[in-house]
Amino acid sequence: MSLNTIIRKAIPAEIETLADIAFVAWERDLLPFLNEAMASRTAEKARLEAAVREGLDRVIVAEVNGVCVGWCQRMRGRAYIPFLFVTPLLQNQGVGSALLRRMESLLELEGHERIQLDTLADNVRAVNFYQHQGYQILALKTEGQPGRDTQTSVRLEKRLSPWHGPIDDIG
User: What is the mean pLDDT of residues 144-151?
Assistant: First the structure.
């Protein structure tokens, strides 16, 4: 199935919608891998809404038929992606790939030579997705208290082809 996907900047009126997309994807794709201490639905919903609100100027949105179906955010001042979410019904339809490619292009235009992101090591689907997009595993990172309540994340990195030179107006 081919989707007519538009990638654009997020707008303030979409904050709640984007947080909802993230929460539904989190529940389906990440919650099964989290231990009890890290699996608070209420805390995660609030965290995701705060992340969207605070980073809205660095969020791009995927829209299909006028409806937001996914989003990607980068950190301020560095080439790191803390969030990439696609509504579960449209996963594996190219939406995540389109968001990732657009974010990579934006970072290349800013002159960044590589981009990094983290995902849970147990989330093999996500790790495979990023590797298929050209990312390589850089490191494993364990979080939490040793011996209990730990989660292992994978840090992935991709080399970019940064733009060096002026960007002329198209005239």
Answer: 68
